Amino acid sequence: DAGVIQSPRHEVTEMGQEVTLRCKPISGHDYLFWYRQTMMRGLELLIYFNNNVPIDDSGMPEDRFSAKMPNASFSTLKIQPSEPRDSAVYFCASSAGTGFFGEQFFGPGTRLTVL
Amino acid sequence: GNSVTQMEGPVTLSEEAFLTINCTYTATGYPSLFWYVQYPGEGLQLLLKATKADDKGSNKGFEATYRKETTSFHLEKGSVQVSDSAVYFCALSAYTGNQFYFGTGTSLTVIP
Description:
The complex is a heterodimer of chains A (115) and B (112).
Chain A lengths: L4 E3 L2 E4 L5 E6 L6 E8 L3 E9 L2 E4 L8 E7 L2 E6 L8 E8 L9 E2 L3 E5 L1
Parallel strand pairs in A: 2-11
Antiparallel strand pairs in A: 1-3, 3-8, 4-5, 4-9, 5-6, 7-8, 9-10, 9-11
Chain B lengths: L2 E4 L4 E4 L4 E3 L1 E4 L5 E7 L5 E7 L5 E4 L2 E4 L9 E3 L8 E9 L4 E4 L3 E6 L1
């Protein structure tokens, strides 16, 4: 298996632009997580899905952030409009059956820079 | 609430030195505890885990024991290698609130 795939790996955009980050989880995994990593705040859970349904989005910082999972093999995290404070590395992770209590498999991350 | 407190880094050790990275937690109920490792430019990988008190997780020479009495899950390795240079994250999974919490991470550099 190719593991969790994220695209793009790097994104540089200007303030006010829309940004879409993409994730393909490992086939057969029914949980998908989006995390954000910054120097100041460390790793934060933004939202997670179970069987394509959003379960908890309490970590999404504000309404500018939205996430979707239209099918079991694809998820997006969208920021509209983007701001410089959104600059971070965004990770997607997936797991099978056990949610938080088993192993989460992380993608390589998308490094987002908002100018 | 639930939280993880992790030893601050960075930590620099010589090859073959003994490693301890401290981690303590606060949780209601009986959480599961994890150590994840992040190598430069990569995503996190599970290193080891423990699901109940007195469990010992181990992998690649690393060990951590779930100590309920001290609410700790310290990571240890008897002899580190240069290839162990990475950032190590302690993490907690709690049934209450159904959430996952990472510590702030400890950067380890092993020099030859």
